[in-house]
Every structure is written in structure tokens, then in C-alpha cells.
Amino acid sequence: MSRSLAGWRIALVALAVVLFAWLVLAPWPQGFEAVFGRKKVFLNAVLNGITLGGLYFLVASGFTLIFGLMRNVNLAHGSLYLVGGYVAYETVEATGSWLLSFVAAFLVTAFLGLLLQWFIFRRMEGQDLRQTLVTIGISIVAADVMLWLWGGGFYQIAAPAALGGATQLPLISSVKSNGDTVWLTYPIVRLVIFAASVVLGVAMWLVLNRTRLGMMVRAGVDDRDMLSAIAVRVPILFMLVFAFGAGLAGVAGVVGGTFQSLAPGEDSRFLLVSLIVVIVGGMGSIPGAALGALIIGLAEQLGSVYAPTYAVALTFLIMVAVLAFRPQGLMGRA
Amino acid sequence: MMRTSVSAAVLLASLLASGSAMAETIKLGFLATLEGPLTALGEDGKRGFDIALKQLGNKMAGKDVEVVYASSDATPDSALRAARKLVEQDGVDILIGPLSGDEGIALKEYSKSHPDKTFVNGVASAMEATVVDPSPNFFRFNEDAAQWMAGVGEYVYKEKGYRRIATLAEDYSFPYTQVYGIVMGFCRSGGEVVDRQWVPLGTKDFSSVIANLPDDVDAIFVGLGGADAVNFLTQYQQAGGDAKLIGGTILVDQTVLSSKGEAKQALIGTPTGGPQADDWNDPKWQEWVKLYQDSYPAEARFPTPSLSATAYYVNVMAVNQALEAVGGDLSDGQAKFREALAKVEVAAPNGKITLDENRQAIGSTFITEVVEGPEGNLINKMVSVVHGVRQGGGMSIDKLKEIGMPSRDTPECKTEY
Questions:
Q1: A40: pLDDT confidence band, cut at 50, 70 and 90?
Q2: B37 and A263: CB-CB below 8 Å?
Q3: Is A296 on the interface with B (CB under 8 A)?
Q4: Which residues of A307-319 are buried (b: 16+ CB within 10 A; e: fewer)?
Q5: How far apart are CA B197 and CA B191, in angstroms?
Q6: Among A23-27, A46-50, A286-290, B26-30, the least confident range
Q7: CB contact under 8 A, A165 and B209
Q8: Which residue of A has its CA nearest to B225?
Q9: Which residue in chain B is spatially nearest to A313 when comparing CA positions?
Q10: Which residues of chain B have pLDDT under 70?
């Protein structure tokens, strides 16, 4: 009984994969295009969803890392994102180097993370409600300070010229009436950023699962007291992880400021995104954050093309569905 | 007993004294979007408002002016909340605001529940606010968004030779009204609007929307504003987009033209219509630009005032003119003041403004094109101006109602309406 059920499942998944591969790779027949719109639109929406997922993953992975290890609910995570973006903008203005701006943003937000952990979270360990309220307060103050420093205008971080413009992908966009194949063109900067977030995600997973440091972190998640009993300095470990998670938010700010823009209000938007991604993916799980980010990114982009009015509601519907059927998140531990 | 009645009398007297002192000040409420996607417009509106008050020495009709500021985020409920606080809690006499289309419609309705206060619209410009059940104490000294687009459809048809266009705009009343304006003009000329796309206000990632833009059209009308406009332009450039654009009024306003980064370069050559042209040589306009520039250091303002700075400046000036006319008399539920306000003729920096019978502005519309200005910044260069533009462009209010209020697919694309 259960074997045949599993067989069915595998068959269904395989069918979905083949169907998706066909949608992406094959040129669409005429009648199909008439019903579902142009293939170019579909391909772009899928790719955009995946690359947007990359950005969401960067923000949410820091959030989930901090939560997973320390059970700290850091609702100032969005503020760190925005600070990182602004710092990167200033760095690019001053030095002209986009890559350097990643370093600057990471260092500044990591340092702010250290301060947060040292002055705030260390003092209220395990008190969720107090942490929540204090970090909401901090995010409000931070939003006003940033409004004071940078104003309400829109900032756009300039990507290097080499990353500007679009490139051709080996994906068929359409076939012209004379038989010529039109290949899909796609912005280079989004591809680069997506590749970078994949590399970072894999690296984080490897560090967590294959190194001594990762072992200590995982041990800290499971039993903090036992870990300190075997002579690991847990407070320092916590500070490092917090700084790293905060730094990731800053790096995400650079990415977001490059392919979108920075403005007041972005902080709360990205806090909301990280919350949704983490709820869908499962609190504290890095693969969960990746899966959640991918789902939310795809939902937003496909929604914006095929159901623009309901695009916003779609992400919340997904969240509600996950909460209803799998409250611990798709990859979360019960 | 004696003591208590004496102290009660003293208390009463002091209350009366403070009451009469209150009558000597005029309490103004300011409301604009100081948060959310239209923050840049709200901030510049505040600059225009403050400049006007400073110019008046913080006095109107010899009385001191006290200001209470409030902020909304372009959603009608946030505007309503802020207006309630200003009117019911702070007790302002006159409220100047809000900034965004849907907010304007909400406050028009709200103003009916406080008939003894006066509401002067900030720069919200959905058509509906002064057409459908207009409120007797709601005044609008800016043209609606379709008035801003008057002549643009004809211009791009004749001068640019566009025959087929598509539109992309945010999904609420202000962009509806802008699209209404351009569709009317363009279709009357004989052009065809093949596709209308709507995205939620506050959309950040436009890349899929961009891929979905039709490529068999001569130009695309983009009715986005604030952060949405900047995000769209950035991603449009990254995607290698090169279609001709027609700008919505706030797509090519100084709020976007002065944004940091390269995105705005895509706008050079973009035609639009609106209530002002950055390089108009009229002395009153030049004077206003100079006043604006002198009032704030260069890094704390735009190179030239945005339309929301101009609108809020004009609003304060209009209120002041009416108050002067009645000697600052706000008694009798402000009846005299409102009567004067409806008749005010404002010699505004962007052309003379008067009100029609629905208390809606009759003003000037400028057709402009984006060019690189003398200091390397982008400006809206004047192409032409028409004065005395009325709401509905000469159509009666009944006719406007027959066509229907601007919406996702109103008006249809026809040569006759």
C-alpha cells in the first residue's frame, strides 16, 4: 500500500519535472501561445522568480541562522538590510568599486550585529516577547535615523559597466515565421547575483555540516549548556554567528540596491519577506530558507504576470497554506 | 463655598481668555506622504508648504499661524487616520492635504462629516474627487491627472508619429486618471491603445512586467511614480529595453529626474504633460524657482521644485488670499472664508488658477520633454502650454459621468466620445 503510494508520488514528481522542462526548453506551439501568452514572458517570469529568490535567500538566511542558533527574534533585520544598502551606495560613490561595497556593507552591518547581540540580546536571553518589542523599537528608531541621514529619496547602486545590459541564454524564446530561432536575452547582473547567492548558500551549508565550527553551531542549537560544559565559549560563538547573519543582511542590501532601489520602507518590506520565507521554509533551516525564498520569488513574479491584481495576496496565501498543513515549515523540524 | 465659586470664576475667566487667544491664531493641518513609495513627493510638498509660510512670516490676515504636520503612506486609510487626528484631536481649522489619488477621494468623503472645517487638497489628482458627489468644503487648487495629460495624446500622435501605444501604470485612481487623459487624446486623434497593464502601487521587481510589455507598439506610456518609477527604469535598462516611452506626469518629475544613479538616463527625450515646465521663462515661475533654491541648501532639495512643492505652495497662498479677503474671519463655521476661497484667483507660479463650480482648479497644462539641463541634471523642457484647462477638457460633468470614472478599462479607445 505505502509502496504503491510512494511510486505514485515519484511518478507525479517526474511528470511535473518533464512538463516543466518541456515548458522551458521546447518552442511553444502556436495554439499553446494563444492560450498561455508568449513563451518569452513565461521564461522571464520563471528566471526572475529564481533570481529574486536568490535575493530573498540572502536576507532570510541571515535571519534564520540567527533564529536557529540563538532563538533570537531579530525584527531589526530589515534595518540591517537597508543600512547595508546605504553604506554600499556611499562606498560606490567614494571609491567607484562595486565589489568593495560588498565588503564595506558586510563589515558595517556585522559590527552593528555585534553591538545588537552585546547590548541587547545578551541581556534578554530566552525572553521572546521582550526581544521582539525591543527590536521593533530599534527598527523604528533606525528607520528615522536613516531618513534623517539619507532623506526620503531613492538610491540606486551602480553596477559595474561589465554587468550592465543583457546577454543571450541558450533558451529558445520563440521561432520566427522564417524558421529563425530567437534566443532569450536576460540581464547579466541578475544572473551574477543569483550565482553568487547559490555559491554562498552552498558554502554556508558546507560550513554548517562539514566543519568543526559548523558542528559547534549545530551543537549549540541542540544543547547550549552541554556545549559550554565541554569548554566551548558559547557567548563568543553566538556573537560571531549573529555578526555573520547581520552581515548577510547588509550584503543583501547591496544586491537589492543594485537591481531594485533603496528608500525608506524597504527595511520593513524585507523584514516581512524574511519572515514569510522563514515561515514557509521552516525556522532555523538553511535549505528551508532557500526553498522558501524560491517559492516566494516565483510566486511573486509569476503572479505579477498572470494575476497582477492578486500577486500580493498570493505570497500570503502560500504562507497560510503552509501554516495550516505544515506549521513547522516545509523543511522545519517539528 | 465662597472660595470655590471664586476659584471657579477664575478658572472660567482663564478659559475664556485662552479661548479668545485661540481665535487669534489659525491652525493649519499639513498632510502628505512622508512615508511609503511616494515619500520623495511628500517631502518636497512639505518644502513648498514651509516656504510659503515663511514667506508670509507665519501670519495670515494678521493672525499667527500654527501648523500641525501629519504623514500618510499613499493608502486611503492612512490618510484618513492622519486627517482624523488633525481635525478631531488637534482641532485644525484648515487641512491642506493629501498627496495621493485614493487619499484624495477618501478625504473628500471625510470632509462631509466636518462641514465647519475647510479641506484644501494637497496634490491628489484622481478625477473622481471633484466629480462624484463633490463635497462643499473640499477645494482642489491643482488640476486633476487627466487635465495634466491634456494635449499629450494629440502631441505624440502628430509630432512623434506614434500610432499604436500600450500603457503600464499603477493600479489606483491617479494612474487611472492619467491613462484616461492620454487615451482620450490619442484615440480621438486616430491612434490605437493596444494593451493596458496595471501593477500594484509599491511594486519593486518589474522584470517580469517588463518582459510582458508588447514589442509591436510605437511607444509605451509609463504611469508610475516615486520609488516604483525608479525601480522600473533601473530594471528596464538592465533588461536592455529600448522602446520609446511616454511619461506619466510623476514619472518625469524632479522626484525621479533627480534620483541617484543611472536609471533616469532612460528618460531623455520622453514627452509628458503636467502642471509645470522646469525651464518656463515666465518671471513668476523663475521667481518661484529661485525662492525654492534659496530656501534650502542644494543637497536638501531638488535642483528645481517638483510639482508637489509647487502645489503645496499654491495651496497655502490660496488659503492666505481668501483669509485676507475676509480679514481672517473663520466664524460661523467658516462660511465667509469658504465663499472667498471658492472665488480666489491665484497668480500661481505655474500660471493663473481659478476654481470651477465643483471647486476644482482651472489651470495651465504644459507639454514637456526631458532633456539634459545646463548643469548636467535632467529637466523637463517646455514644448507648449495651454492656459485655462478645465476638468474633462470641455466636456460637461454629466458627459464625464456618462463615460464613467477612470478605471482599468475606462475610457474605451474611440475617436468620438
A1: confident
A2: yes
A3: no
A4: ebeebeebbeebb
A5: 18
A6: A23-27
A7: no
A8: A154
A9: B200
A10: 1-23
Count chain A–chain B contacts defined by CB atoms under 8 A.
Answer: 130
The structural architecture, per CATH, of the domain B18-143+283-359 is 3-Layer(aba) Sandwich (3.40)
Distance CA B284, CA B349 (A): 5
User: Which candidate from A187, A260, A308 shows the least CB-CB separation from B199?
Assistant: A308
Q: Which residue of A has its CA nearest to B212?
A: A41
Strand order in the sheet with B219-223: B192-199, B164-170, B219-223, B244-247
Please give the mean pLDDT across all residues of chain A: 87
| A301–B234 C-beta distance less than 8 A | no
Nearest CA in chain A to B237: A165
Neighbours of B409 (CB within 10 A): 13
Contacts of A83 (CB under 8 A, 6+ apart): A108, A109, A112, A142, A146, A250, A253
Of the pLDDT bands very low, low, confident and very high (cuts 50, 70, 90), residue A4 is low
CA distance B239 to chain A (A): 5
Q: Which residue has the cell 528645481?
A: B304
Per-residue cell: B136: 462643499
What confidence tens digit (pLDDT) does each residue in A218-276 have?
887 778 788 888 878 888 888 888 999 999 999 999 999 987 888 888 899 899 999 99
pLDDT of residue A298: 93
Closest by Cβ to A305, choosing from B37, B42, B212? B212
Structure ipTM? 0.70
**B343-369 pLDDT per residue, tens:** 999 999 999 999 999 999 999 999 999
pLDDT surpassing 70 at residue A3: no
Structural domains of chain A sorted by starting position, each given as residue range(s) with its CATH number in brackets: 36-325 (1.10.3470)
The residue ranges of every structural domain in chain B are 18-143+283-359, 147-274+365-403
Please tell me whether residue A227 adopts helix, strand or coil conformation: helix
Cβ pair A41:B34 closer than 8 A: no
Same fold, B18-143+283-359 and B147-274+365-403: yes
Inter-chain residue contact A165 with B238, CB threshold 8 Å: yes
What local confidence, expressed as pLDDT, does residue B5 receive? 52
B103-131 burial, b for 16+ CB within 10 Å, e for fewer? Answer: bbbbbbebbeebeebbbbbbbbbbbbbbb
Q: What is the pLDDT of residues B246-303, one digit of tens each?
A: 999 999 999 899 887 777 888 999 999 999 999 999 999 999 999 999 999 998 899 9
**B413 vs B417: CA distance, rounded Å:** 9
Chain B residues whose C-beta sits inside 8 Å of any chain A C-beta: 34-37, 39-40, 42-43, 73, 171, 197-200, 203-205, 207-212, 226-227, 230-231, 234-235, 237-240, 255-256, 258-263, 300
CATH number of B147-274+365-403: 3.40.50.2300
A window 89-148, beta carbon within 8 A of B: 89
d(CA B55, CA B308): 18
Mutate which: B33, B39, B208, vs A, most A CBs within 10 A = B208
C-alpha distances in angstroms, A315 versus A308, A321, B357? 12, 10, 46
pLDDT at B31: 97
Yes or no, beta carbons of A153 and B199 under 8 Å apart: no
CB contact under 8 A, B211 and A152: no
Select from B346, B342, B354, B352 the least CA-distant residue to B391. Answer: B354
Give the distance from residue A42's alpha carbon to the nearest chain B alpha carbon, in angstroms: 8
Among the partner residues A52, A166, A264, nearest to B205 by beta-carbon distance: A52
The reported pLDDT for the residue numbered B16 is: 44
Q: How many CB atoms lie within 10 A of CB B195?
A: 15
CA distances from B403 to A327, B146, B180 (A): 50, 14, 11
